[in-house]
Design brief:
single chain, 261 residues, alpha/beta, Rossmann fold, seven-stranded parallel beta sheet, 8 helices, 7 strands, 14% strand, globular
Length: 261
């Protein structure tokens, strides 16, 4: 399927690896011009080169900390008027909230709630003027199913705040053909999944392979998801055809969520 976004411009945050990298590849394959961002220059430049080589897309890499005002300005200078904005950031480390001080909470808020909001504020009015905009916030399946992640209270808390705000805004701009959705990954094969599983393995005193097996056993699909699967679904939310999908939080979790919505 041609997603109808060839020639569009996109900012993809945290795109040197993992889910962001996968989404960047998927959009580039559709002919989207990319501005990629991450803090690590070497990994980011390598990803940009891989995407150019594989797809022929125009890719600009901006190595900066987007949780800072200076970082956001650098990314927006490279792409001041994106048609597509993919908000994404690594979550705070797992642990007991009793051990999290105020500074750590503020860092989590900056990275996983305020930065996406500030990027939307900087770009959405031009999307409205052009009558095309696609905003996807990559958060977590735990936003809808918080009980499944007892060690991720800080992550769930700040991402839930972002989800609530975006739900309000999405309904205000839908009639301008600007959509805002959440892509909520469950257990997808990424470095983040590995780090969380290693933490749980040490905490429980169980071998990591045993913890992986236990996790996969409760997923109806009986396996972890792949970055490719996640990226394809997220790219569709950015498509011209997805103009009637907005204010949704799409679970990509192999059927783990026990509800019907």
């Amino acid at each position: 399927m041609d997603l109808g976004i060839g020639g569009r411009k996109a900012i993809v945050c945290a795109s040197s690896k993992g889910l962001g990298r996968g989404v960047a590849f998927a959009l580039a394959s559709e002919g989207v011009e990319l501005v990629l961002n991450a803090r690590g220059r070497d990994a980011l430049e390598a990803t940009a080169a891989d995407i150019r080589r594989a797809t022929g897309a125009k890719v600009t890499a901006v190595a900066t900390d987007i949780t800072t005002e200076a970082g956001r300005q650098a990314v927006l200078a490279a792409c001041p008027d994106p048609d597509i904005l993919i908000n994404n950031a690594g979550g705070p480390p797992p642990g007991d909230f009793r051990d999290v001080d105020r500074d750590a909470w503020i860092r989590a808020l900056d990275a996983n709630m305020l930065t996406p909001i500030f990027l939307v504020r900087a770009t959405i009015d031009k999307m409205i003027e052009r009558r095309f905009g696609r905003i996807v916030n990559i958060t977590s399946a735990s936003v809808k199913s918080p009980g499944s992640s007892p060690t991720l209270g800080v992550s769930v808390g700040v991402r839930a705040g972002l989800t609530g705000f975006m739900g309000v805004l999405a309904r205000q701009v839908a009639h301008h053909n600007v959509t805002i959705n959440g892509a909520l990954p469950g257990r997808i094969e990424t470095d983040r999944l590995l780090s969380i599983t290693e933490f749980e393995s040490k905490k429980m005193g169980r071998p990591i392979d045993e913890v992986h097996a236990a996790h996969q056993a409760i997923i109806p699909a009986k396996r972890y998801g792949t970055v490719l699967e996640f990226a394809a679904a997220t790219a569709f939310l950015c498509s011209a055809q997805a103009s009637y999908i907005t204010a949704q939080n799409i679970m990509l979790d192999g059927g783990t969520f026990p509800g019907i919505a």
